[in-house]
Amino acid sequence: MTLGEIQRKVNEKMSAVEKIQMEIDKVDNDLRVYKQQHRNLTEKKRYASEQLHAMGRNREPKKGQLLNLRNRVRELRAQLEGYQAQIGSEFLSQLSRNEQAECERLQREILERKQKLDQVSKERSVLETTKQKLENQLTTNLLRKRDSLNAKISDIAVDEKRHNLQAESAELNSVIQRLNEIVRRIAELDESLTEYDESAEKLNRELEDVQEQQKDLEAQLADFSKQADIIFTKQSTLQSKREESVKKIRELGSLPTDAFSKYQGLSSKQLDKKLAECMQELKKYENVNKKALDQFVQAASQKEDLTKRMEEQQKSQKSIEELLQVLDTRKYEAIQLTFKQVSKNFAEVFQKLVPNGTGALVIQTKDKDDTFDASQPDQALHIVESFVGVGIKVSFDGTS
């Protein structure tokens, strides 16, 4: 795995971590929204409860005021009836002026009280209507709304909240596990990157060492090339001298077997001196055939080779003759065995077909007067070469 691939995988993991962090932030935002909604519902519930309690507190005083007003109305009505009875009585003419004035005053007061009573009745009617509206609103709207809010709050607080909390907790745990796994993997990748960095650094050091060694080897190779050029030049010179020496040896003809070993330990100067002496001696025999000894040695060698080849050919011929004899024997044995079996089967079949007769097979040869009988195994093997066919010899009544 290369460093680029590792870096790419690290970038992918970092992108995945950022994506998971975004998901976590989104979950946190959703939780904050849910908490804010819960707080808003709780505040609405508290406000509704306060209104309900306030209405409950105001209801009792209103009931007391209404009851007092009803009692006062009854009292006023009783007084009015009393006053009306007195006014309409026959004793009104018997009253004095002061009493009549008092009566008029009372009538005016009654009228005022009656007006006040009408006003109170109107106010009572308005209060009863308001009360009825409030009771209706309380019964049909606020109480139901309170119950609905309580139900919603209860549902949110118990079921949905628990469910959402469990789901969010499970998802959060999963995200945390994935995040831990990614962090662990990133740590492993960091360790791997550290190891790769160390390996890369080690390889770089080794590469530098190898490059230094390569430079040393190149320098040594240059030196060796120079030395090789010198050696090749010397070798070429020595090769030329060797060819010249070989040419001179050929001109000398055949040499003794100890010629090389005898002069092997001598120096070049000594060999040159010996060579000069030998060349001086050879001038005395310039008219002698220099190749005679070589031709004699070559002819003797060829004679020896031909003798060996003739002996090998004779041995091969003997082996071939023995092999042919063995093959002829095996062929004769095979023919004899097969013919005996077939002749036996023929005699048995003929005996079954002709109970009183006899039958036999015979091998015909090139000489029509001669036949080969399987019952005579002592006949010569060379007869096999003259076999031309198979004949039968039968007797139907015991005679040939």
Automatic annotation (TrEMBL):
Look up and give the organism this protein is from. Answer: Oesophagostomum dentatum (Nodular worm)
So which domain of life are we looking at? Eukaryota
Which of UniProt's keywords are assigned here? Coiled coil
Which protein, by its recorded name, is this?
Uncharacterized protein
- What InterPro entries does the database record attribute to this sequence? P-loop_NTPase
Q: Which residues form a coiled coil?
A: 17-137, 162-227, 268-323
